[in-house]
Design a protein that fits this description.
Layout (H helix, E strand, L loop, with lengths): L6 H5 L8 H24 L6 H4 L1 H24 L23 H17 L1
Helix pairs in contact: 2-4, 4-5
């Protein structure tokens, strides 16, 4: 996402632009959609088609986007730094250096790459 992508949101004072609960809700929506796609794939695994196989990367995208959004919600709740920092894909940079475990950092960086690639 470009830094200017949400400019109208921020200029017009939209309360949702920096509302952590809104970001959490959106994250839950994407996670639920990803889970639905995975259940759909599981139910059709005996009769795979191109369409059913494509459920997997779609679910992965939705899950990685969900992880990005929930991370941004956490940042909004806990930080004193500029809230505008959430409007970038380098989500791992939003956290203090020792906040994430190495595995969490690897996952978050995968999410960053996947969302940018798919976006």
């Amino acid at each position: 996402m470009q830094h200017s992508s949400s400019l109208s949101w921020r200029k017009n004072g939209d309360d949702q632009a920096f509302d952590s609960e809104t970001w959490e809700f959106k994250a839950r929506q994407f996670r639920s959609s990803a889970e639905f796609l995975l259940r759909s794939f599981d139910s059709s695994v005996d009769n795979l088609t191109f369409e059913t196989i494509m459920l997997l990367p779609s679910a992965e995208f939705l899950m990685t986007l969900s992880i990005e959004l929930i991370s941004k919600a956490h940042y909004l709740k806990k930080t004193k730094r500029p809230k505008e920092d959430i409007y970038k894909h380098e989500v791992s940079e939003l956290f203090e250096s020792n906040f994430l475990s190495p595995k969490q950092l690897t996952l978050l960086r995968h999410c960053e790459r996947y969302v940018i690639w798919a976006g």
